[in-house]
Design goal:
The protein is mainly alpha-helical and 187 residues long. Helix content is 63%, strand content 7%.
Amino acid sequence: MSLNKVAYFGIGGGDGWGMRQELLRYVEVIRQNEPKGFRWKHEEVGDEDHMTSRLLLNYYGLKFLFEDVKASKELVEHFCEEDFLRAEQELKNRYGEKARRPASSYIHMATKQESSGDLSGAITVLKRAIEAYPRYIGLITYLARLYVETDQLEQAISTYTLGIEVSRKYKLGQDEDLLAEINKLKQ
């Protein structure tokens, strides 16, 4: 049997013995008959009881259910542009076209690629990051800087121009600085 689903079974460690035992029996049935593709987790949280464990269990449950939104260690440590783009598409297929990783994940991947000398990989990550976070001026200027470093001056100018548009639209106050970067590149 196959069940491509995710479930979290949490309970407070201070909940009644009977409640904890019932959940353990239920989890044991799952463990013995675990369907293929079923990702699940059971845990007892601290010494919280039935009423006070809710916030913690919501937090840990959501963190577990959506752990695939964070870039996998494999993807970060052994970066490949094709694998990255495939993982991004899988994320959008699973959660919808607007799905995205935390901005910090994209920044981490881009800086890791940049520091290893893979500027093309860093550019690929930043292009996706800007698609995911179109208002994030820091991502736009980072991408423009990498275009400059790789002698892709037309792309750098168009990226800085995008930055100016975003800055003006959202009143970020960076228009003049970005225009100065464009003027330096045109000289």
